[in-house]
Design goal:
elongated; mainly alpha; 133 residues; transmembrane; membrane; 0% strand; Protein of uncharacterized function (DUF2721)
Length: 133
């Protein structure tokens, strides 16, 4: 196995930071939609808005999980950089490996959340088509 250098874990810093920015923007968008939808549901409760709120709750928790695993990955990349710096190569290799696994989990959850989002949007498109016909 080759030795890790300081640049190896550092390469992920910018990628994970951009990913976290995207996750945060998605989270903020959910917050706004949830606020609007709950206000709408409070004024006129319907089964459709109830289902949308349930869907958004699931997506919100997935978004939180994506962020937690992403932050965990970034944290371990920083720890890995420190371990490389102080010369603890074996610990650095394992830490970097776990950081990569956390990033994979975060991305996998992101894919799951996108699938749910697409299904929710398809529902709206189907409803709009039915109303036009």
């Amino acid at each position: 196995m080759e030795e890790l250098t300081l640049t190896t874990p550092s390469i992920l810093f910018s990628a994970i930071s951009l990913l976290m920015l995207a996750y945060t923007n998605r989270f903020l968008a959910y917050a706004q939609v949830i606020r609007n939808l709950t206000a709408q549901h409070d004024q006129n409760p319907t089964p459709v808005t109830r289902k949308q709120i349930e869907n958004l709750r699931k997506r919100l928790y997935l978004s939180r999980s994506m962020q937690v695993f992403g932050v965990g990955s970034l944290f371990l990349c920083v720890v890995c950089t420190l371990l490389v710096y102080i010369g603890m190569q074996a610990a650095a290799v394992w830490t970097f490996g776990v950081a990569l696994l956390l990033l994979i989990v975060s991305l996998g959850i992101s894919i799951q959340e996108m699938r749910i989002s697409v299904r929710a949007l398809e529902y709206h498109l189907d409803r709009a088509e039915k109303e036009r016909n």
